[in-house]
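This section describes the prediction task in plain terms. A model, or a person checking by hand, is given the sequence of a single protein chain and must write out its three-dimensional structure as a string of tokens. No templates, partner chains or ligands are provided. The sample shown here is typical of the held-out split.
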Amino acid sequence: MHIEQVHIENFRLLKKSTLDLRTSTTLLVGKNNTGKTSFAVLLEKFLTKADFHFDDFSLSVRDSLLSIETGTNVDELSIRLLLKIKYDEKDDISVLSNFMLDLDDTRRHTNVLLECEIDREKLVRDQPESGQKRKKFFENSLKSYLKTKIYAFDDYGYDAESSGAYYLKERNQLQEKMPEELRKLLHFQVIHARRNVASSEESSKGSNPLASISTQFLKKKNNTSDNSNLTETDKEETLNEIEELLRKTDVSLDDEYSAIFGEFLQNAGKFLNLSQLKVMSNLQSQTLIENSSKIVYGDDENTLPENHNGLGYLNILYLLLKIEMVREEFEARQATLNILIIEEPEAHTHPQMQYVFASRIKELIDKLPRLQAVLTTHSSHIVSKSAFEDIRYLSKVTNQKNVEIKNFHTELSEKFADLHGETEGPLLFKFLSQYLSIQSSELFFADKAIFIEGTTERMLLPLFMSKHDRGLAGEMPLSSQNISVLEVGANAKAFAPFLDFLGIKSLIITDIDTTVKNENKKWEASKVENGTRTSNASLTFFFDAPDPLEEAKFSTWIERLKSHKLNVRDTFKNVRVAYQSKEGDYHARSFEDAFIALNLSEIALRKESVQGLKNRSKLDTSETVDFYKLTNEVIDKKSDFASSILFEALANDHSWCVPSYISEGLKWLHQD
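The expected answer:
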């Protein structure tokens, strides 16, 4: 049994959003301000403390609230949380049966609806007539006109995305349930992002968060009144031993205190006319661990206090203790379903520790019975170590003022099949999955992206971006924007569905890679002017090349490609593909080709210091140059050549000319 789907309506950014929860651990990722925290807050409000305010309603709902009148349909304005629960014949449905509305033994789903409803009649009666007073009244007082209800409802005809959803059309069919019934069914815990970990500077002033949470942990184990399901016999044997030891210590300290304070207390008793004043020991385990204990690390002879540990270690240790406390609560409550939300586990931790945490957290969570966990994160390192089936991506739908929660794995795999076909699509999706898991998960959090072919472009791109930024006047520099740069070789087309999925503006910098058929009827590299094909799969994909067997169509297409008269396919409105164009009298085939054509004289002046070259004497020429031939003759190691070009720019302040296809691409990317 598990919660298969969560649907949210009218709460902050989540106007109408649906989360697929079919995995035991779900990872919510997305850029800032896309509703990750709102999701956690809504569950907490509904499941632990129903405290809603005017600001909790989506912006699109607030205008209707402010103009509420007797005829307003307040059902459409309610904040909702819908839980779609799946079960099978093996599950114990004794508790769930309270939310099942028929006896159909073939059904495998039931639904729970939580609503923050508006008391329309009372609100209409009490609200000021108009203007700022009304708005202020709603901001300050609306919470007094809200009530939380719990319902079970039938899912025949259920469509959470439809304005005619069952729970709106058939209000008389909703069966109200008591909070006690929901508590038996579902237990919820959240570990917030703002955890009480402090730097060593703060800790030295008395803040020891690990000792503090250790105290909480001990209290949970030791305090039977915290949960009615626990009795004294449930306490662990070790706790009883600690308490017995403290009682014996109390007796010993009583004798010592009598010897020390006896004369003073006897005199004080006479003075105050009080008899038998005593100082008695009253050690308590939870107080003792809080005030007289500390967490240290190191070996037996050389230990350091917790505040000498880095914030990353403190955060992870804090998280592990909190998870252990949560486990205790889940086991004590014995609810049918359990949900745990952990916000931003990466706080204060370096990448390697994030990798370790991501690798082990699922294993830890899977040990907890009947638990579904949701982790929210901004960490590409945690994403890269997570199973793609677990990832849910939150993105804003601007024109709808809503946040969509996309199932990364299922929705993206479908896009790959649609764009690349049933045969190639799964192969490219597999490539993307492996590639992203290695190095490129930051795309989930980027505002823009640049895809480059190889080492040369990767090394020199920051230099080109810096040169672009120097020409700006009062605008945000491109180098300061949230841009992810990926080196993908000629595989940019494998990212096409992913770019469409994320909806981020993307620049693909690639080579035209023209080819011609040789005398052996094999395709080989050629000058652009002679080329009749391109070996670049990204160009043929993004510019929608016809079948090469249709020679007339393809011949027209390749000539239009050379002259930059083609547009990127309509599907990819946020993508620009930049490749070599004609500059002066020459059309380069590759980056090195284009760069040498623009900077030949400067390279010749520095030919002895520039690395990665061979046949340096060929750079000295006053004749008309065949740049294509020259590039092949003088370039030895591309990476060494690029590093030398970069060194001359940074160390000797030389300003190299940037090929126009790159500079124009950067200008396009810079635009909002």
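For orientation: Residues 591-656 form one domain.
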